[in-house]
Design goal:
With 382 residues, the chain is α/β, with parallel strands linked by helices. The chain folds into 2 domains: 2-99, no CATH class; 106-381, Metallo-dependent phosphatases (Purple Acid Phosphatase, chain A, domain 2), CATH 3.60.21.10. It has helices spanning 2-24, 31-58, 74-99, 116-120, 179-189, 232-235, 239-248, 303-308, and strands at residues 106-115, 143-153, 164-168, 196-200, 225-229, 252-253, 258-263, 266-273, 292-297, 313-316, 325-326, 330-331, 345-349, 352-356, 373-381. Strands 1-2-15-3-4-5-6 form a 7-stranded mixed beta sheet. A hairpin with a 2-residue loop joins strand 13 and strand 14 (352-356). Helix 1 (2-24) packs antiparallel against helix 2 and helix 1 crosses helix 3 (74-99). 37% of the residues are buried.
Length: 382
């Protein structure tokens, strides 16, 4: 029993640290500071079991050597109590994950996978940052999932029934994953036409890769337009230069504003939200009540704001689906004020339908049970 309690204490302690890390990464803090926080997290998670075993198991109350739990002083009572709260929180998150169901607005979903590494005959890896992670066995980073989803929305104008949107997010041009990987993904996207392309941020992790736009984003085309915003990783680079190059590639920057589009003769309003890292929230107050409203927000944390603005469809990324999803538990790390709640998938919070992409890549090229994705969305009236 003592060993079980010690194990649960370690599990609860780790859970609390991960919860803190997830929420701190939702803050507009510089990457250098967040890196130090992650290092502190790593040290504390690794040292705590050792200190617990030595301090409470072998020494002090000697709980692993037959000591009495009734002899604990206030310090150890507090430690075990706090760790116990972490176990309770973990149980809540896991049960919520088990009970999560797709909203009825998601009326169909299909997908197919493409093993890009198998097609190329090797994993497209260069000796860039964190390249060792890309070589780990069973890494799904190079197994693309092309997902097709149909959303039935109550306020979709009749003339827009069947409108199609490619939702792309979190491509993270870094150099570790080679350019040819992205070019293969683009060729797959080009096999399906769409009315709109929407990119929801985190394009660049290394400015030297900006020229990759010429053979990727610049080659995509949609009948009604290509819209984009940037994310926190772009913010850590040179965002204005990234914007300029995306616009040169034919993409429309909707950050901090509302763009009026006409699709099939029907007006829609598209806004972009890069907060809390850059800009301000888009102002939909002047948009007519009957106009369909689409929001591109890098983080799903802006959902409450979207609901107040009566957004019909909100597209987000940022969380990468957690990148590593454990059996039964689900995603663990997710940089959001809501933790893993909106790590990926489709969520209905009236009047807004939120779709969170798992993204295509990441600064750390490791994915288990969480394949990278691009999503083709079809909107239906209902």
């Amino acid at each position: 029993m003592a060993y079980l309690i010690f194990g649960l204490a370690v599990l609860g302690h780790t859970t609390l640290w991960i919860s803190v890390i997830n929420r701190l990464h939702a803050r507009p803090w510089p990457e250098s500071l967040l890196r130090k926080v992650r290092h502190l997290h790593d040290v504390c998670v690794l040292l705590f079991p050792i200190l617990l075993v030595i301090g409470a198991g072998w020494l002090g109350p000697q709980l692993l050597r037959g000591g009495s739990w009734l002899s604990l002083d206030w310090l150890w009572i507090t430690v075990f109590g706090v760790c116990g709260s972490g176990c309770v929180w973990l149980a809540f998150v896991v049960v919520r994950h088990w009970l999560e169901r797709s909203p009825r607005q998601l009326t169909s979903e299909t997908s197919h996978g493409i093993d890009v590494a198998a097609e190329l005959g090797e994993r497209p890896i260069s000796p860039g940052p964190y390249h060792v992670l890309a070589t780990i066995p069973w890494n799904e980073q190079f197994t693309l999932e092309v997902t097709r989803k149909t959303f039935t929305l109550p306020r979709l104008p009749e003339g827009l029934d069947g409108m199609r949107i490619w939702h792309l997010s979190d491509w993270h041009f870094l150099g570790t994953i080679e350019r040819r990987y992205y070019e293969r993904v683009v060729r797959e996207i080009q096999t399906e036409s769409a009315d709109l392309f929407c990119f929801t941020g985190d394009l660049i992790d290394r400015m030297e890769c900006l020229d990759w736009l010429d053979t990727t984003f610049a080659t995509l085309d949609a009948s009604a337009g290509k819209l984009f915003i940037l994310g926190n990783h772009d913010w850590n680079q040179r965002p204005e230069e990234v914007r300029e190059r995306m616009q040169t590639a034919g993409w429309i920057d909707v950050a901090s504003r509302v763009e009026s589009l006409t699709i099939r003769g029907i007006p829609i309003a598209v806004g972009g939200d890069e907060t809390p890292w850059m800009g301000t929230e888009p102002d939909f107050s002047s948009v007519p009540e009957s106009t369909f409203r689409l929001l591109l927000s890098h983080t799903p944390d802006n959902l409450a704001r979207a609901r107040r603005a009566k957004i019909d469809l909100m597209l987000s990324g940022h969380t990468h689906g957690g990148q590593v999803r454990l059996p039964l538990i689900g995603p663990v790390f997710s940089p959001s004020r809501s933790g893993v709640r909106y790590a990926s998938g489709t969520f209905w919070k009236s009047p807004t339908l939120l779709h969170v992409s798992r993204g295509l890549a990441g600064q750390h090229p490791l994915r288990w049970n969480c394949r990278p994705e691009v999503t083709l969305i079809t909107l239906r009236r209902g």
